[in-house]
Amino acid sequence: MKNAAEAADRASMSHTLPPELFSGLLAIAADAVIAVDHEQRIIFFNEGAERIFGWSAAEVGGQYLEVLLPARFRAVHRGHVHGFGEAHGRARLMGDRQQISGLRKSGEEFPAEAAIERIELEGRSIYATVLRDISARQRAEDLLHQAIRSRDDMMGIVSHDLRNPANAVKMLARSILTGADVEHVAPDVLERVEVMRQAAEQMDALIQDLLDMTRMEGGRLVVSPREVEVGPLIAQSIEALRPLADAGGVTLRSDLPAPLPALRVDPDRVRQLFSNVIGNAVKFTPGGGIVTLSARTDGDLMEVAVADTGEGIPAAQLPHVFERFYQASRSGRAARHGAGLGLPIACGIVEAHGGRIWIESAPGVGTTVRFTLPLLTHPGAPPG
Predict the structure, then answer these.
(1) Per-residue model confidence as pLDDT tens digits over 78-91
(2) Is the pTM of this model over 0.85?
(3) Local confidence band at 173 (pLDDT 50, 70, 90 cut-offs)
(4) What burial class does residue 113 get, using C-beta atoms within 10 Å of its C-beta: 0-12 exposed, 13-18 middle, 19+ buried?
(5) How many CB atoms lie within 10 A of CB 167?
């Protein structure tokens, strides 16, 4: 009861505040507050309006509102205000269908946001407008769009001018390693050629990761879901990563139900997803450790888990693991394994399929990455 009484007192007090207080608040507002009469002549022009437009209240008082608008917008604006006066609504945002532009005393145009309200005062209609100069925001957006265009141009160069020579190195190295006269090539030369081939493979993979991140940030990561038997896809991913696990002394195993249900996914993207998540677990698991892939159905989704027996990730770092280029520190050191794009790309692939991905980890316990993918019967799966 006491709270209700206090609320009623506050509401009552707001109705008894002197008009001079409201007038003073409007006068010092940072935004432009302008009022015009039924003929659209200016009758109120606050300090914010003076700063934004460069006119003093004395200079524009009694003038038509058109003086504050570029010539090409004046007729349209006059019609908008007239139409607003005929409508039943009292207030609305302006510029829903076109950009609002203001005109300073200097002749400079600027972009703006505005709202208009009709007020009935002593039988007359008065129109009040609150206008905000968004020049700074517009400049920032323009710079952002320019930066995005520059980034896309750069990625076009990366994908073409760098990928082509990388592919050439891979092809030439492969031809030497598998050629008919390979038995006549010295063993130390073959070792160097194999190193060259692996380096070219890594470069190509990094270029692909950068392109995928660009597509994700631009909302252009496209998936083409269809019916997929996930068992063979998982087996292929595990076998592709087994050499990496063997080289590091890591045991790679699966604990999957039989039979696995069919999924509605993009097989190429999901193969990339498994490769990124399993590969990341193998890289951060010391020799003698184990990486286990398991799965279970949960309603109309399949939940996949990739668990490792590595050192784990401190709790403070967990919120950042899906950020691009982020690398979690292990044993107090920041050991770099790749560019830090594997998990962000995995996140983008999962979300593009309507699933979610998360990590459970603790130092000394290991890390488990879990994600969900839609079953074939998932009613909300993206169309194929």
Answers:
(1) 666 666 555 545 55
(2) no
(3) confident
(4) middle
(5) 14
How far apart (Å, rounded) are the C-alpha atoms in residues 313 and 337?
Answer: 15
Alpha carbon 207 to chain centroid distance? 20
288, 281 contact by CB (below 8 A): no
Query: How many other CB atoms are found less than 10 A from the CB of residue 135?
Result: 15
- Residue 256 has phi, psi (to 5 degrees) of -115, 145
Backbone angles phi, psi at 292, to 5 degrees: -120, 130
DSSP 34-82: EEE-TT-BEEEE-HHHHHHH---HHHHTTSBGGGGS-HHHHHHHHHHHH
| Structure confidence at residue 334 as a pLDDT band (50, 70, 90) | very low
Long-range contacts (CB closer than 8 Å, 24 or more residues apart) made by 344-351: 344/213, 344/216, 345/209, 345/212, 345/213, 345/216, 345/272, 345/276, 346/273, 346/276, 346/277, 346/371, 347/322, 348/212, 348/213, 348/216, 348/221, 349/221, 349/223, 349/269, 349/270, 349/272, 349/273, 350/273
Higher-confidence residue of 14 and 34: namely 34
For residue 104, what pLDDT is reported? 95
Q: Amino acid identity, residue 307?
A: A
Residues 6+ away with beta carbon under 8 Å from 14: none
